[in-house]
Amino acid sequence: xxxxxxxxxxxxxxxxxxxxxxxxxxxxxxxxxxxxxxxxxxxxxxxxxxxxxxxxxxxxxxxxxxxxxxxxxxxxxxxxxxxxxxxxxxxxxxxxxxxxxxxxxxxxxxxxxxxxxxxxxxxxxxxxxxxxxxxxxxxxxxxxxxxxxxxxxxxxxxxxxxxxxxxxxxxxxxxxxxxxxxxxxxxxxxxxxxxxxxxxxxxxxxxxxxxxxxxxxxxxxxxxxxxxxxxxxxxxxxxxxxxxxxxxxxxxxxxxxxxxxxxxxxxxxxxxxxxxxxxxxxxxxxxxxxxxxxxxxxxxxxxxxxxxxxxxxxxxxxxxxxxxxxxxxxxxxxxxxxxxxxxxxxxxxxxxxxxxxxxxxxxxxxxxxxxxxxxxxxxxxxxxxxxxxxxxxxxxxxxxxxxxxxxxxxxxxxxxxxxx
Amino acid sequence: xxxxxxxxxxxxxxxxxxxxxxxxxxxxxxxxxxxxxxxxxxxxxxxxxxxxxxxxxxxxxxxxxxxxxxxxxxxxxxxxxxxxxxxxxxxxxxxxxxxxxxxxxxxxxxxxxxxxxxxxxxxxxxxxxxxxxxxxxxxxxxxxxxxxxxxxxxxxxxxxxxxxxxxxxxxxxxxxxxxxxxxxxxxxxxxxxxxxxxxxxxxxxxxxxxxxxxxxxxxxxxxxxxxxxxxxxxxxxxxxxxxxxxxxxxxxxxxxxxxxxxxxxxxxxxxxxxxxxxxxxxxxxxxxxxxxxxxxxxxxxxxxxxxxxxxxxxxxxxxxxxxxxxxxxxxxxxxxxxxxxxxxxxxxxxxxxxxxxxxxxxxxxxxxxxxxxxxxxxxxxxxxxxxxxxxxxxxxxxxxxxxxxxxxxxxxxxxxxx
Lengths: 420, 418
Ligand SMILES: Cc1cc2nc3c(=O)[nH]c(=O)nc-3n(C[C@H](O)[C@H](O)[C@H](O)COP(=O)(O)OP(=O)(O)OC[C@H]3O[C@@H](n4cnc5c(N)ncnc54)[C@H](O)[C@@H]3O)c2cc1C
Ligand code: SF4
Ligand code: SF4
Hints:
CATH topology of the largest domain in chain A: FAD/NAD(P)-binding domain
Strand content of chain A: 15-25%
CATH architecture of the largest domain in chain B: Up-down Bundle
Radius of gyration of chain B: 21 Å
Bound molecules: flavin-adenine dinucleotide, iron/sulfur cluster
CATH class of the largest domain in chain A: Alpha Beta
Shape of chain A: globular
Oligomer: heterodimer
């Protein structure tokens, strides 16, 4: 089966790259083994919260000047980074995913533990603020769903009260939710969202909360609304005269799942092919290091062929990288992986210290060509968290790297075509 | 470290990272509060069951075995297999007469076909439906698929078999109970296409029901017998055929994956040779080994529904790809949703409401598109959609056969020496 580009992995980076290519008329196929890291996302996109030495970053484009030359952002370069950073909000809006935040300056988001953490852009369910504090005069009503434990209003209240706000917490009991509670499958964000997607349950909630309001200036709900569509979000917002905000819950992430679905739908609506639940398990390379085809578990002897291939298989979590006791490997192509040899240096037993293994990933050239046995593969590019050279967790740069490298590689593939 | 790398259980439940993504995509969870959901019923429950079988929960019977949980699991856990294996292993529920009747598709089919003129009006009559509902607990709101008066096998032996040896290339055909007893036309369409592109067709020797309904109704012993017979018979056929094809996504999945995973039947010698007809045909076209020529006067609008088991196989792209080759066909691909029938599940009185509410989003989308036909590769999806929406449902193979310019196709494939 022939395509212009075959993308392996359908998370944030694979989808962004696929959409950008498909938009200019490239026939793309995305193969994705299972659901991606977006299902667990906070709903905020990070681009560069901190430098490797821990210094916090306010202006990401400024901050990236201090990154080593092997960092994906350095490979992309200042000028292009500026172009991509400015294009991100518009790109996602075209996909039906509204984002908020100033792309040139980091803002702050409210974390599930009540702290204000830096963030670059965020799904519009959430709010971003310029300073890590709220108006000291603010009076906030924090609403939980009775019996829901993956959202802790007390933490959030404590966090907000640090800046002088006054908070009140209520938990609303809903008949329909009680039925869910009798079900041994726990009260989790997604299950609750499914119930709250029903109109009559939501209006029950709105009237219960309206009765409780005592002149508060804002309401905070857990982000358990709108699994299928974000019209539910604006509907809730319009139901109150007071400002309504949503706060991140523990995973799974309802806004993240909705985003994954929307991106996939958009990709398919512009003609892309998305194969969910299939795994690329082999590749055929020519002697001059060109990928000739890839094969999948479900397709058997029928091969996928393309001019270009993109590896967007994620990190350890998504099985884009595999760790065995002795080594770290990339399972599809057997690419070269950058990592430190001594296993003792892979991790720190202090969970909160910088974990080296997070910065391990496949070796690439400055053009993100993947490298095997020391030689670049002409038509295989790697993007997103399968890449090495950056520590998404320590730097706070996960989604940013996924999006920026996806943009860059899409451009490289498009430019190649123009040269031909 | 060794313990870690060497400890993978049969259905890999320990790979579960407790993310609950499977529960998001399970079609039963939002409509049936009695069902614990895939995570709880699957990997979580398995841990307890391994300790003691008493932890088995009969509510696992509400699982449709649609495998949507497996398709989305980021960790590759065989959730659906864990649940079905647990049912087969621990359930104390003895199959009722109703379950046995519903499960014995070939036995019931062979009797009913002989008496089709009597059986069809009887099962669709009001008093019979009331009786079935009252005594057998088969929901009276269901319409029963009609039985054909001549089985496919009978037709094939009489009309088609003598012509097949003339072809240099050969494939086998696993027709399944539905084609044999209810809808021989689909089998005839299949033979028509294969012959047109230069392939002769042989049937599986004394084919038995793939066993899917036996498995879901807890009749493992009989299912295993069927599996052993079919595996051997298919192996025999593969000796002289390029592949053994089926026009049913469920028969295909059952023979390829449920035989080893649920029944413990070793099918490694035949697994790769058992394919859905659309995949085989698509591959031939893709490799340039055959050409399909379509009628110029053919015109149709179709909405394609991917059956759950085809989503699991990952092959709906082949049905869609083939249909897209037909110039006169305007195709819309429906959102991926379960239709709710899940084989014999939706026939049971206790499941009727759940079954219909699962299918609602799909039915609504079909109604809003109002296509000439709905295309799908599964016989039970066909019953469910026809009954619930009134729209005509066709297997993609039948649509291809109808659109095919047979003479031109034969000519084209001969000319090219294909
Ligand atoms: C739990 C978690 C939470 C996170 N939260 C945030 C957050 O809140 N904000 C943020 O900025 N960053 C976050 N990150 C960082 C995250 O890695 C990036 O934001 C980004 O989503 C990574 O996208 P990706 O496309 O590179 O990889 P992934 O999203 O991991 O996608 C990779 C995909 O490839 C598929 N795949 C793998 N191997 C194969 C194969 N052989 N064949 C076919 N498909 C294959 C996988 O199934 C998966 O769907 C989080 C990461 C994790 C693990
Ligand atoms: S999706 Fe897979 S890993 Fe997640 S809870 Fe379900 S079975 Fe476990
Ligand atoms: S097989 Fe289908 S019905 Fe059963 S648990 Fe999985 S998703 Fe739910």
